[in-house]
Amino acid sequence: MTQLAATTLLEEDRLRADLYNFMGLILSGPPDQMLLDQCAGLSGDDSDLGQGFKALSRLASRTKPAGAESEFNRLFIGLGRGELLPYASFYLTGFLNEKPLAALRQDMIARGLERASNVFEPEDNIASLMEMMGAMIAGRFSAPATLAQQKTFFNRHIAPWAGHFFADLEGAKNSVFYAPVGKIGRAFMQIEAEAFRLSKDN
User: Fold this and answer.
1) pTM score > 0.90 for this model?
2) Could you tell me the residue ranges of all domains in the chain?
3) Which key words tag this protein in UniProt (predicted)?
4) In the structure, what pLDDT confidence band is assigned to residue 182 with cuts at 50, 70 and 90?
């Protein structure tokens, strides 16, 4: 993050960016012991989002990395494919590598975002989109995105399908540790969608 971004970012936006980055991290691969310990230290209130954090904390305190990895593989990898395919193209068209991915790549170029050299998943993976949104809010690669830019990116690439994916993750047959991750994501997407709906672009 640039020094300018660090000094001008509002606290609310920093927290939003942190949550997007957390979702990107926990969905990008099985959590190691350090991430499980961090999850175990989370707390929440009585809101849907807060209840998700409390449930995740309880599960993380008694989950081992091997168990989390086994669950992650059943959900997202499996033999041939996992229970869920966490890609915008699949959720919006029923197929991978379709128009939603092409549209995302165009917007990534326009915003100066590119796939990391060690990442081989299509860019419309839910983890990548969460990370991109966090980076845009925090200004990790350039100036922080304006609210209008965030709204446009969210409405184009996240809003049409992410809530559905997170609801599927929450209720998936193989979801135990990841069920509250789905709950957190579903609640967060609802909050973001409503905030953008009520916002005045700037």
Assistant:
1) yes
2) 3-198
3) Chaperone, Plasmid
4) very high
